[in-house]
Automatic annotation (TrEMBL):
The keyword Lipid metabolism does not apply. One of its GO terms (molecular function) is sequence-specific DNA binding. Residues 213-311 form the HTH araC/xylS-type domain. The keyword Lyase does not apply. This is HTH araC/xylS-type domain-containing protein. SUPFAM superfamilies: Homeodomain-like, Regulatory protein AraC. Keywords: DNA-binding, Transcription, Transcription regulation. InterPro entries: AraC-bd, Homeodomain-like_sf, HTH-like, HTH_AraC, RmlC-like_jellyroll, Tscrpt_reg_AraC-type_HTH.
Length: 314
């Protein structure tokens, strides 16, 4: 009997993987495709208007990136949708984008500004201790990827962005080192504005940051198959109680909620492709019982999958 149950479970998991492979996915933009005349495959920077002109076909519809990017708007208005959250685009809007997120923007007036993109490895050298998650906007997926600057703040930051573009376009000695220093300077200045703009943001110890980063990394790898905090606590070599304490103290959610929120986010992304049925989505995310998946979805979002699908299809 146990063997039959085991075989059935394995077959269902395999079916979920097969359905996942067949489902229509959101297209992914690679960093290597941004700088056509650039020999670097882990960094790119440009004026925003130039970037949009060269990559309009890939940025005007929903897509993902396999890299991080930061964009500062100095002119223009519109909306920017990042993983189903909508933000206003206006002068002073800054967006921080993590690898894997889905987004697109729509403009009411022509935008201007600056944008730089990089891989994780570009910033996180194996010989240095600096990590991207030291910056509050990259610390966790629960922290908003958005900041609004005043006109004086924009004017103070613009020279650093212009210096970054100038350095990238030249061919001087220690070019890479200076670019990394300029990126770090911009991130530090933006972090100060980010922290001062959100009084509820908590200061997290380096030890907790490492655990949160590892936890979210393991979630990204296993969320389709594993929904239990105990599984992830074992992967990080800490107790489930301690993991929950760290997550609740740092992010004001439980470990279980962080796992399920990642599942719900992927479900929403898959629903954007109308060819994907709700049953197939449920299976691909590890739920063999669609009714149970529907209850989980509604408990976290307030609406059923069917209602959510109807809303985004309007």
């Amino acid at each position: 009997m146990e063997r039959m149950v085991s075989c059935l479970t394995s077959d269902l998991v395999l079916l979920g993987h097969l359905i996942d492979c067949l489902m229509r996915k959101i297209p992914i933009v690679n960093l290597q495709n941004l700088g056509l005349d650039n020999q670097w495959d882990d960094f790119n920077v440009d004026f925003l208007s130039t970037h949009l002109e060269e990559h309009n076909t890939t940025t005007s519809s929903l897509h993902k990136h396999n890299f991080f990017f930061c964009v500062l708007f100095t002119k223009g208005r519109g909306t920017h949708k990042i993983d189903f959250d909508t933000y206003a685009i206006e002068p002073g809007s800054v967006f921080f984008f993590r690898a894997g997120q889905a987004h697109y923007w729509e403009f009411e007036t022509p935008p201007e500004g600056y944008i730089f993109s990089h891989s994780r490895n570009f910033y996180e050298s194996p010989y240095l201790s600096d990590k991207l998650n030291q910056f509050p906007f990259y610390r966790s997926i629960k922290n908003p990827p958005f900041l609004r600057l005043s006109r004086p703040d924009i004017e103070n930051l613009e020279p650093s962005f212009r210096d970054l573009i100038k350095e990238f376009r030249c061919d001087s000695i220690f070019k890479r080192s200076k670019i990394l220093s300029l990126v770090n300077l911009i991130y530090v200045d933006l972090s100060r504005h980010y922290i001062s703009s959100d009084k509820t943001l908590k200061i997290v110890s380096p030890t907790y940051m490492k655990i949160i980063e590892r936890f979210e990394m393991e979630i990204e790898r296993h969320y389709k198959e594993e929904k239990s905090p105990r599984f992830y606590a074992d992967m990080i070599f800490i107790s489930t109680k301690h993991l929950n304490r760290i997550i609740r103290t740092s992010l004001d959610v439980t470990a279980s909620e962080l796992i399920i929120d990642r599942v719900i986010l992927e479900a929403k992304r898959l629903m954007l492709r109308s060819e994907n049925s709700l049953t197939a989505i449920s299976l691909s995310l590890g739920y063999q019982d669609y009714a149970y998946f529907s209850r989980v979805f509604k408990r976290r979002t307030g609406v059923s999958p069917k209602k959510f699908l109807a809303e985004i299809s309007r």
